[in-house]
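Weekly puzzle thread! Below is a chain. First person to post its structure in token form gets bragging rights.
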Amino acid sequence: MSQADTIVREDGIIDSVSGPVVTAVDLDARMNDVVYVGDEGLMGEVIEIEGEITTIQVYEETSGVAPGEPVENTGEPLTVDLGPGLLDTIYDGVQRPLDVLQEKMNSAFLDRGVDAPGIDLEKEWEFTPEVEEGDTVEAGDVVGTVPETVTIEHKVLVPPDYEGGEVVAAESGEFNVEETVVELDNGEEIRMHQEWPVREARPAGDKKTPTEPLLTGQRVQDGLFPIAKGGTAAIPGPFGSGKTVTQQQLAKWSDADIVVYIGCGERGNEMTEVIEDFPELPDPQTGNPLMARTTLIANTSNMPVAARESCVYTGITIAEYYRDMGYDVALMADSTSRWAEAMREISSRLEEMPGEEGYPAYLAARLSQFYERAGYFDNINGTEGSISVVGAVSPPGGDFSEPVTQNTLRIVKCFWALDADLAERRHFPSINWNESYSLYREQLDPWFEDNVSEDWPEVRQWAVDTLDEEGELQEIVQLVGKDALPEDQQLTLEVARYLREAWLQQNAFHDVDTYCEPDKTYLILTTIKTFNDEAFDALEAGVPVEEITAIEALPRINRIGVQEDYEAYMDELKDDITAQLRELY
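Winning reply:
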């Protein structure tokens, strides 16, 4: 909306300042309007209106702001700029490009009140129309394409709030995002630049039941607790258990077309690592830079708390924009606990009635609104696209009974519980297989049967049963010792040890083991099952368990993950295990 289109109004006046919450009087505003606060023009958003008093959450540090300074209303809600240039870019919580702000300031430290559009309004892009004069287009239709990066073709869409009509002009050539690329007979002009309010979901058709997995390249997730494309997952875990590394692995290796990574209130050194590493990483799918299909939103813990509250909405709106083009998007939110803490702080400054542990009463509703924007959709233009949302949760002290974890559990269908004890034992990913679950398993089984192996569900269930039995036996072992168990139970413990060490454990820093395709995940599991089946045959034939576990081939199971030519290695290993065990009887 241009300045001329906004309602004529008088500026308001600051009445009081309480951290990021500012109250103003005499301000003609509506809920969620964006305003500029104080002499420095700090960006904020209207969050409460009571009589003549308007309450604003400010997205920047408010020190030095005083009562009596002006407040200017834009008349628009908080929106994001959508168009070519979103990828390979790092934003703050309200979609200000950090590299552009750094150039403006000529410093890594940003002054207050500095602003920049979310995408470059001057840069020209090579536009190729996909419609001709006389074609009829509707809201959401693709009218042309732009080579946004070496990896992603950007599809220029009719804005969802347009009526559509007959094309009267469409030209190829180089245009900036503000120039008209397609004209319709009703006078509507389509540009590459769109705006969309972040708190409003972009329109889509039916939400479908997802039937294809989002392959993560991590054995414990793909093998035991898969997530669907268009699914939701939570990664709760205490400090140091590996939440951020796990999410970074998903961002690097998941088979999504687009990755949106939101650093929401995390430590600055972790976000620095992400910002420095991602531009250097090659994309395993294409060999191009990973950033060519990635948008980063960096809102660290030392940044203003109000911007933290908005950054998840900024990220999910960008994800919806690429979903509308027919892409599969993976969104990583690290972490939703910091987002909830921002809501709690602002709620307390508004003097709202607190809920459990001081969180606002609407915590569950806000979490639901966020996760509900994920899904596998029929888009309004006839294409299909998905948004998979993975949210990290940081429960204080690792207490999964706290409100953010519990409310998240009621919403998501995939739960990857990180365990501090596993992390201390250097078992990574430290996903506890006894506490984690996936409600997508059954609906994804047909895909694994068709694309990996028909007996995938049966082999996986064998692994689950073995690990469950180990958990029960370990309680007995702690009381009476391993040697007091019957030999068959001792052998079960040995098989489960290889499941944990060779299958569930994975080295994120090894060039080969950092990513494991589904075929390799399956073959490692069948190799361990081959040992299980042959070992129990030998035990029934009277071979002592000590001799069974002492065969020369057995330790090689732990080296499967780092083998490049894994199929030949495992074929040979299965043969050696079988031959050496059968020699014993």
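Puzzle host: Confirmed. Bonus trivia for everyone else. The longest helix spans residues 456-480.
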